[in-house]
Design a protein that fits this description.
alpha+beta; Dipeptide-binding Protein, domain 3
Length: 571
């Protein structure tokens, strides 16, 4: 009885369904046209082929999951009739399965019925052994996904799974149509341009036109299940430029209604907001700016199918003393002050939210320690050369440091380059257009997932308040590689058997208190291995025009989770 009570508590805590606020009655399409700007332009509308937040957000207004997270991080039924729980019989007593039931009358934007077969197909698509699915981690530990009937889906797990709300939940795990994608399985997935650029969905909008790395045009879905929604008839989702131009387009010129990811210095944001035409939206969640360490050799002297793979360990960064030295040399307080101000917090952890799962064990990174960094490199056998850069066995301690093109990130690069030079490390700086860096082209040498550099800087987050799938991404075998079309979220190619064993325990542990302990332990292994270098826990910072209503910022799911409810405020 005690175990059942614990299991019910764990599952129920994940499945609270709050009442959604309803907007006043409006007519479908009555708000006209909406202009959105993402200075990191969209490259595909298939989120399974891109790990980028920009693609996930854009796709979320077309493709939808069974359930998603609201702005409080609580589960809300979406395409499903209700959230399955132990109490309503949707979650098995032994936690070995979960059963979902689709809402009645669901249709795709082409008017055909949505069935359980589409859900099963989505699983098969994303777990195909020859395919590269960016969100494959959502389907870890599943034994089978089956259609019980046209409206019922049963997911059976390999082991007891106290958090069964990962597959088909959240913007990173939507349902795709079998009829459209059935000939796009495995290695063929990235070749299906028509399907990937204009997926048929159930969301409030459908794609009218996509020009990769430029603009997406959306029109409302006349078959959307909510009779009077969406309120905007069309959307232009512009891409390119920079964060400064995006902010200016909302706050000063009024050309845009919504601007995403305003990664700008605090004084720049304050000056822009003084224009008075828009409102800054800020909230803190799991978003964290970091430097990833490459555990594999990205040398251009290697063949392309071996470069950046485990076939060749990194010749310098596999030494933990070097990795720790790089971290000790960084002043995170200063980075936060100049780059984010009140919209950032210095970070020393991989998991920075929710608060109960944030480790208290790594705060020593908050103090820059140049002396300790130098001592570590001395110990590792790197000696100062005549130009101040360290040398070992005839090799200079030189690293290629890449990131996306952005004023804040280039400021960070310059400061970190300076600090690393103080300890005898030469950093060659490279910045790449954000649309390319976060793009999905498996043939591009410049994507952050391919990671053909020594270290790279970017930010990422996870959906919901359970970091289990985010932690799963760093397991052995989850790295991008040629056979997965360079998809995968183990960006730094990290592999630690202790870490993998603890994650497996977390995945089956029902007790909430023990789960929190395991999350912290996993975080500490990864951080104390200096597998990556946390920098700043960032707030989500976007902007909306004063004439735009219905926007509810969500740090736990897509920023456009309630896009159907956005409307024009009459002036």
């Amino acid at each position: 009885m005690k175990r059942r009570t614990a299991l019910m508590g764990a599952v129920a805590a994940l499945a609270l369904v709050p009442a959604l606020a309803t907007a006043q009655e409006r007519e479908r399409g009555s708000s006209g046209h909406l202009n959105v700007i993402y200075w990191q332009a969209v490259s595909t509308m298939n989120p399974f082929l891109s790990g980028g937040t920009k693609e996930m957000n854009a796709a979320s207004i077309v493709l939808e999951p069974l359930a998603r997270f609201d702005n409080e991080g609580q589960l809300v039924a979406w395409l499903a009739e209700e959230i399955p729980t132990l109490d309503n019989g949707g979650v098995a007593e032994d936690l070995m399965s979960i059963t979902w039931r689709l809402k009645e009358g669901l249709v795709w934007s082409d008017g055909t019925d949505v069935t359980a077969g589409d859900v099963v197909f989505t699983y098969e698509y994303c777990t195909h052994p020859e395919g590269g699915c960016a969100y494959r981690d959502r389907f870890a530990g599943i034994e089978s996904v089956e259609a019980v009937d046209d409206h019922t889906i049963r997911i059976t797990f390999e082991d007891a799974t106290p958090n069964p709300y990962l597959p088909f939940v959240g913007a990173g795990s939507p349902i795709i149509q079998r009829a459209q994608f059935e000939n796009c399985m495995g290695a063929r997935a990235p070749e299906c341009t028509d399907q990937n650029f204009a997926p048929i969905g159930t969301g409030p909008y459908k794609v009218a036109n996509l020009r990769p790395n430029d603009v997406v045009e959306f029109v409302m879905n006349e078959n959307y299940r909510v009779a009077n929604q969406p309120y905007f008839e069309t959307i232009t989702w512009a891409g390119g430029g920079d964060a400064t131009g995006a902010a200016r387009a909302v706050f000063q010129t009024g050309e845009m209604d919504y601007a995403w990811n305003l990664q700008l210095a605090p004084e720049v944001i304050a000056q822009m907001e003084a224009g008075g035409r828009g409102e800054l939206l800020v909230d803190f969640g799991p978003l964290m700016e970091r430097i990833e360490i490459n555990f594999t050799d990205p040398s251009p002297d290697l063949p392309d199918d071996e470069r950046g793979t485990r076939m060749h360990p990194h010749p310098i960064l596999t030494d933990i003393r070097v990795r720790e030295a790089l971290s000790r040399a960084i002043d995170r307080e200063l980075l936060t002050e100049i780059g984010y101000g009140p919209t950032g917090r210095p970070a020393c952890n991989f998991i920075v939210a929710p608060p109960a799962m944030v480790s208290p064990n790594n705060d020593d990174c908050l103090v820059q320690d140049i002396d300790r960094a130098n001592a570590l490199l001395d110990e590792a056998g790197w000696e100062r050369g005549s130009d101040g850069i360290r040398v070992k066995d005839g090799e200079r301690l030189e690293l290629l440091f890449q990131t996306s093109t952005n004023a804040v990130r280039q400021d960070f690069q310059a400061l970190i380059q300076q600090w690393w030079r103080e300890i005898g490390v030469e950093a060659q700086l490279r910045n790449i257009d954000a649309s390319v860096f976060f793009g999905s082209d498996p043939s591009s040498p410049d994507t952050y997932v391919k990671f053909w550099a020594d270290v790279e800087m970017y930010a990422s987050l996870f959906e919901g308040t359970d970091p289990t799938p985010h932690l799963e991404q760093r397991r052995c075998g989850r790295e991008p590689r040629p056979e997965t079309q360079w998809q995968g979220q183990n960006i730094n190619r990290y592999c630690n058997e202790e870490y993998d064993a603890l994650w497996a325990e977390l995945n089956r542990e029902p007790e909430p208190a023990r789960r929190q302990e395991l999350v912290i332990q996993l975080n500490d292994i990864f951080v104390q291995d200096y597998a990556h270098l946390p920098l700043v826990a960032r707030g989500r910072v976007s902007a909306k025009a004063n004439t735009l209503g219905g926007v509810v910022l969500n740090v736990w799911d897509s920023e456009h989770w309630n896009q159907a409810e956005w409307y024009r405020i009459e002036e």
